[in-house]
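2024-03-11 09:14:02 DEBUG pipeline.ingest accepted 1 chain
2024-03-11 09:14:02 DEBUG pipeline.ingest length=287
2024-03-11 09:14:03 DEBUG pipeline.predict start
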Amino acid sequence: MKIFITGGSGFIGKHVVNKLAKEGHSLMLLIRNKVQSDYPLIRGDLSDISLWYKKLSAFAPECAIHLAWEGIPDYSSNISITNLVNGLRLYQALVKIGCKNILTTGSCFEYGNAQGRISEEYICSQDINSFAAAKRALYSIGSKISEESETKFLWARLFYVYGPGQRNEALIPSIIHSLQAGILPELKNPLSIHDYIYVKDVADAIIRLLLKGKNSGIYNIASGKTVTVRQIMQIIAKKYGINLPLKQSFVHINSFYGNTEKINKETGWFVQTSLQQGINETIKYYE
């Protein structure tokens, strides 16, 4: 199958691309940076699609995976608006050339101040930042663009993804780097609760959803379990032989997690990697 991918050189994108290539799909990647690749590339970005539209049209993708989101971890309104506009222009270009299957990654931040086990039908709160608002708008308008052209539009709502290749400032890599340097990291919110999912499980879910998802709409990609930041810290510290007491000077609990029954039933996808296994693999990568 011919698949066009944005963000293919990013944290999640690299795992998606590698898995798709192993499965024998024909890929074309949109790349901003000068990188070497075994796949056909379009050098450019989403700010001016007209510069590479002909190459995209000539490739004639059957499917597209939109992973790119400029500026992370900048969640400001300016960068969010830029990503929203670029994403909508991409959808218009894709449906114009006849691409009939589009998958985009959303975020669990779209759920806002939620509590408990959250399914895709959950009515999202208004207590969200600009990033989450832009993601919601991209899904809403993108759905309409796709509906008008009879294109399947899949929205993969990701929870807290971690694993090899994540930016160094993210929680798990930052703890690993600190402990490797013999420094005990300070955690602002050790009792914060999140649903963490290993990046290779995420890549598998994205691909299964793209190829087997039956209907347009939102799909949670999550582990379906919660863990505190303190527990993650203890797992990593134990790998370095450190028994680490954690201070509890400030507590903020964010306790919602993903219901994945929808993607489980439609695609047969299930989480394969435990938190312990995923953290072990991540430590090996950074070592």
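2024-03-11 09:14:41 DEBUG pipeline.report The longest strand covers residues 101-107.
2024-03-11 09:14:41 DEBUG pipeline.predict end
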